[in-house]
Write a structure and sequence with these properties.
By secondary structure, the protein is of the alpha/beta class. Helix content is about 35%, strand content about 25%.
Length: about 260
Amino acid sequence: MAGYVEIFRLGKTYATPGGPAVIVEGFDLEIAPGEFVALIGHSGCGKSTVLGMIAGLCPITAGGVVVAGREIDGPGPDRGVVFQSPSLFPWMTAFENVMLGASQVFPHARPAERKAIVEYHLSLVGLADAMHVRARELSQGMQQRVGIARAFALSPKMLLLDEPFGMLDSLTRMELQEVLLDLLAGDQKTTLMVTHDVDEALFMADRVIMMTTGPRARIGNILEVPFARPRARTAVLEHPQYYALRERLIGFLEGQVHVPAAA
């Protein structure tokens, strides 16, 4: 059966003074409805380029992406994106930042309905008491909660996460990983996350997609993650297969010759 998300022969080439630079080539992947996939690889291998093409933010050179039966041709509200930096308007409150997106995606909804959507999703990420605080006054972790609430409030068919916790301290990172998993337990969105963190990938994903080092990066291996959902961090760490799976991921990454390339 075809996947909910179908990525076929995806490629990205940039023109350079020295000739065409092929960053990603022949990237093929199907993602099932509600599946959480992590994309891992060395810095500069093209992970964020792949995510950017799926998001419609980076033009596709070759191949294509189909989400829920529709081939994408640019950005759209059917794909919610959370970046490493939450990209909020600092002078706006958390509520206003989320409402900005909700107003564009639900232009025909009544104001009270949009207000309820925004308040609901900010409450889900733990910001019920801080939704009217300006973004610049929020901690980095709280700002990322706003970014996550904004993505879910748009009711996308697919969630795209580009190292969403990469700028956070370890305690906040672990806390927000669990916030996100709780949200996905209630709203099983098909999710693709770019990460450098092997432990994060194993804790959160159903499959880990390992990319070869660029140029001409592609899928080098795929790891099925056997941990049942819902997941508790302690149970995952104590699982008899955890460290063997971790070693497989690290072994693959160490086996890649790291050649810096455009990400």
